[in-house]
UniProtKB/TrEMBL annotation:
Name the record gives this protein: MFS transporter
Highest taxon in the source lineage: Bacteria
Pfam family, one: MFS_3
Keywords, sorted A to Z: Cell membrane, Membrane, Transmembrane, Transmembrane helix, Transport
Bilayer topology: Multi-pass membrane protein
Source organism: Pseudonocardia adelaidensis
PANTHER family, alphabetized: INTEGRAL MEMBRANE EFFLUX PROTEIN-RELATED, STAPHYLOFERRIN A TRANSPORTER
Localization terms from the record: Cell membrane
Length: 414
């Protein structure tokens, strides 16, 4: 289950990931509270989230280009240092008396840095463990992120009462020191180098041409979009069910959030136990999770709903881990950064669309019916993906001449 921890470099990476994830969720809590306290507007909180998401939608592809052409460790060190400085700036703004404009500006800059952060981090993480243990590393990463979320939210609530939002931002700034130290301490000689793009295969257009020819990746992106947007936007539906049909109020929503968090940890551990995170695991988890989502709309009370939420949360992590593993292992190494950037863009678009859409469905049809409809759509999307993947597999059995852009890649330097 913990194969990836046998790599010294991954142990450094995992420890820093837990620290950084905890700090990040502290900042999420602190930022939402700061904006809500200073404006009294939930819309303002939503705008803060939007400002952080827009740069990924606009600039995500360019970050993949850099990850495929430049050394990864300097890129990661640069983005982590910028994150540190921006978190420290938020701490200063909170201490000085927050202005909405300043908070929005820092949020947008944080989103900009994050847009250029994901693909280099993803590629470097793959170099830390290599192909054989990549799925296990991604699964353990899901466990660490879930644990960091639980720790960040719980500790953040305590620290916010002691020192306010500025203390949370300061802790997050300090957490980036752990990542910087881990990247510096990584032994380059034990990394698993990847190929980098030749000039002919570099650039955003070359990446788009590559993706256009990789039908399997496009099907996975489409499936991931549906499952992430309408398939399991449970932060919206759990709140709607708690205040609506379940009549459980804030206490019920808190219980469901805790159950969901526990489920994500369980899903990460299950994925870590799988020797191979192949298409069967992905499709199986998608079918089970979508079916359970449909059934959750018929839950007669809080406890039955919580009992269904637990495996749904676990299945969501298995889906994300299997999808991330397949995207990494089934893409060319010299295109990996642009593929990861495309996946991040799809994920950001799913989050931006799915939240409002599921919220509208809950208000228009009622949360229970919204869950049932979303489950049906997710099931249909999964079945359609299976059919498309079968057609692609059959088509690939017919030999094709080599592509004109298949230049010989060159080894990468970490």
């Amino acid at each position: 289950m913990f194969r990836a921890l046998g790599h010294r470099n991954y142990r450094l990476w995992a420890a820093s990931d837990l620290v950084s994830s905890t700090g990040t969720w502290m900042q999420v809590l602190g930022l939402n509270w700061l904006v809500l306290e200073s404006t009294g507007s939930a819309t303002a909180v939503g705008l803060t989230i939007l400002f952080q998401a827009v740069p990924m939608l606009v600039l995500g592809s360019w970050s993949g280009v850099l990850a495929d052409r430049l050394p990864l460790r300097p890129l990661v060190l640069a983005t982590q240092t910028l994150h540190l400085l921006l978190a420290a700036a938020l701490a200063v703004i909170a201490l000085a008396g927050a202005t909405t404009t300043a908070v929005y500006a820092v949020a947008a800059l944080t989103g900009l840095v994050s847009a250029f952060d994901g693909p280099p981090m993803g590629k470097l993480a793959a170099q830390v463990v290599g192909r054989a243990d990549l799925g296990n590393a991604l699964a353990l990463g899901s466990v660490l992120n879930s644990t960091g979320r639980i720790l960040g939210m719980s500790l953040g609530g305590v620290l916010a009462g002691l020192g306010g939002a500025s203390l949370l931002f300061g802790v997050n700034a300090a957490s980036f020191v752990a990542v910087i130290a881990a990247v510096v301490a990584i032994r380059p000689g034990t990394l698993h180098p990847m190929e980098v793009s030749t000039p002919r295969r570099s650039g955003m257009l070359a990446g788009l041409r590559y993706l256009r020819g990789e039908s399997r990746l496009l099907v996975l992106f489409a499936l991931g979009f549906v499952l992430s947007s309408i398939g399991r936007n449970y932060q919206v539906t759990m709140a709607a069910m708690s205040t609506g049909p379940l009549q459980a109020g804030a206490a019920g929503f808190g219980l469901l959030s805790t159950v969901f968090a526990v489920g994500t940890v369980g899903g990460g551990l299950f994925a870590a136990r799988c020797r191979q995170l192949g298409m069967r695991v992905l499709i199986g988890a998608a079918l089970v999770t979508s079916s359970l989502q449909l059934l959750s709309g018929f839950s007669p009370g809080l406890l039955p709903f919580a009992a269904v939420i637990l495996p749904i949360a676990a299945g969501a992590v298995v889906i994300d881990t299997a999808l991330g593993t397949r995207v990494q292992l089934d893409s060319a190494e010299d295109m990996r950064g642009r593929v990861l950037a495309a996946q991040a863009t799809v994920s950001a678009a799913a989050g931006a669309l799915g939240g409002p859409l599921v919220g509208w469905m809950s208000e228009t049809f009622g949360p229970a019916l919204a869950l049932q409809l979303a489950g049906v759509v997710a099931l249909m999307a999964t079945v359609a993906a299976v059919a498309a993947l079968v057609r692609i597999r059959d088509a690939r059995r017919v030999p094709h001449p080599p592509r004109e852009d298949a230049d010989e890649p060159v080894p990468a330097l970490a």
